[in-house]
Specification:
single chain, alpha+beta, Endonuclease I-creI, 4 domains, four-stranded antiparallel sheet, 18 helices, 11 strands, 46% helix
């Protein structure tokens, strides 16, 4: 059933993130995150191979951890096998004993499940004061021995985990002193404290979290308000949801090499060829020289917020643009949709993957894809007529829908143009999801449906886990939906319906199921063996 071999490997985990509505796409930041106390380490590892169709390895790993096993493996798919990769030192005798116990328990549980099949589940009422029933069912790294629980009360505004003191997060036994000493747990951080924590974001991979207590919300959509209807008519009259012939204007920092600029434009123009030209739009390419981007920032603020005091934008998105240049240079982007102005406009900002000094030109295809991604946000927003009034669930686009569909589009377009290996990106997203589910048990894409839920997630993990839910979880969700329907259903069919009836109804019509039904199906998919997931989604 299993074979073993000893290897010496170099592990460098790379997580790729792309942009969204007024939020940063930041591949280089995540690379930096993974480099905390891990960079260029040569590690002896022990590998166990399982047949992918014989065992649920995620279930096995969770069971091992619950029994005190503290050598948490990496999980990788290889053809028809799945590999558990353990760091040395290796205790084979203990592993075999615990694994046998787990497999015996799985057999008994499966037998009991067959007996109980057909019985109706009792649905208990849920309140903010009552923890969700599924908390007790979630296992993960928090069960490791030797965890040092962080003495910080997470349960101040929400009940985020089942702990009397609100100690929802802790340090793994192997966590570095540097992380423990420098990462700040505090609400309402100052700018200086926030910048400090950005430097130590990678420390999250040395933390464990107790199971998340989700918020149940009413997904019943309401009709648009009169205010929403009036605004929708205003946008229609202006041509917000109509293709345009107006040329796109560019604002480009002088320190960006021309090769990068042209590649970035190419990605956007390829996207326009596929899905149409919307806007009016202005594109900003910022480099790494903070001293020369002030004029671009001022132009951005005046273009997108002509009716507001310019200082407000300069201190908000303007500061974000500076940080993209000097804290996280390369591979960043965000889109802005100024639908509320007298003359509605759209724009996006891109900081190319060029290195600290614009010295790298080998990531041009990635720059193409970031621009395609950001332009898809422009396309999405052109099909949002009934703007959110923060009431009426069906009219507000969830984070996982917005970002997940944009990642899906950039990969479809990238595959068509030879910019990316889509199957490899699918594997990367699935790997990220596997680690996310064990590190943040209980979280799902449904926890990003509303901004109230998003705030709750941010309170739980200090924004460190939101990206995975939006991007990787969202990406795989749309890969799964594409297998049920088609890429065209996601890229072309969904958005015109969403423009008139809201995303919730559009989802029902295009995918022939409710979001609640899909969430259940998605969770069942994520419980499958890793290789089975890959086989289902491979193109």
């Amino acid at each position: 059933m299993k074979s073993k071999l000893l290897l010496s490997l170099l592990f460098i985990l790379i997580f790729i993130l792309c942009g969204g509505d007024s939020s940063s796409d930041n591949d280089s930041s995540l690379k930096e995150m993974e480099e905390v106390d891990q960079e260029n380490q040569q590690t002896d590892v022990y590998i166990i191979d399982y047949q992918a169709d014989e065992i649920d390895v995620d279930r096995l790993v969770s069971c091992l951890i619950s029994k005190g096993w503290n050598n948490v493996p990496k999980i990788e798919g290889m053809d028809n096998t799945v590999q558990l990769i353990f760091d040395e030192p290796w205790d084979g005798e203990l592993y075999d004993s615990l694994a046998d116990e787990c497999e015996d328990e799985f057999k008994k549980d499966d037998e009991d499940k067959e007996v109980d099949e057909g019985s109706e589940a009792v649905v208990k009422p849920k309140t903010e004061e009552t923890l969700q029933d599924n908390l007790s069912l979630n296992s993960g790294l928090w069960e490791l021995p030797g965890v040092e629980w962080i003495e910080f009360d997470f349960n101040t505004e929400y009940i985020l985990c089942d702990d009397a003191d609100g100690y929802c997060a802790g340090w793994e036994e192997s966590a570095s002193k540097e992380c423990k000493d420098n990462y700040i747990f505090k609400r309402d951080l100052t700018q200086e404290e926030q910048e400090n924590n950005w430097k130590y974001e990678g420390c999250i991979y040395q933390m464990v979290f107790k199971p998340f207590n989700p918020l149940r919300i009413d997904r019943t959509p309401t009709s648009p308000t009169e205010e929403q209807k009036e605004n929708a008519n205003r946008l229609r009259e202006y041509g917000w949801n109509q293709e345009l012939t107006i040329e796109i204007s560019f604002r480009v920092a002088e320190d960006i090499p021309s090769e990068i600029v042209e590649a970035s434009k190419d990605g956007m123009y390829k996207a326009i060829e596929k899905i149409g030209h919307y806007g009016p739009m202005r594109v900003y390419y910022i480099g790494n020289n903070v001293d020369i981007i002030d004029d671009l920032i001022l132009d951005f603020c005046e273009f997108n917020y002509p009716d507001e005091p310019v200082e407000r934008c300069l201190d908000d998105q303007g500061q974000g643009m500076r940080e993209m240049a000097y804290i996280y240079p390369g591979g960043n982007g965000f889109a802005q949709h100024s639908w509320h102005t007298e003359k509605p406009v759209q724009s996006f900002v891109h900081n190319p993957s060029a290195g600290d000094n614009n010295q790298f030109l080998y990531e041009l295809d990635h720059d193409r894809m970031v621009n395609a991604h950001e332009y898809f946000h422009v396309y999405q927003e052109a099909h949002v007529l009934y703007r959110p009034s923060w009431i009426g669930f069906g009219w507000d686009l969830p984070r996982w829908v917005g970002e997940g569909s944009a990642v899906f589009f950039e990969l479809v377009l990238g595959e068509e143009n030879g910019w990316v290996n889509r199957n490899e990106r699918i594997k990367e997203s699935l790997n990220t999801i596997a680690e996310h589910r064990v590190r943040f048990p209980g979280l799902s894409i449904g926890d990003t449906d509303s901004e109230e839920q998003v705030e709750r997630v941010n309170q739980y993990c200090f924004q460190m886990c939101l990206g995975g839910l939006q991007y990787e979880f969202g990406h795989i969700a749309f890969e799964l939906l594409a297998k049920k329907t088609s890429s065209d259903a996601i890229i072309f069919d969904f958005w015109p319906i969403a423009a008139e009836y809201g995303w919730y109804e559009a989802f029902n019509q295009v995918f022939s199921m409710t979001t609640e039904e899909f969430y259940e199906e998605y969770e069942n998919f994520l419980r499958l063996p890793f290789n089975e997931q890959i086989n289902q989604l491979s193109n």
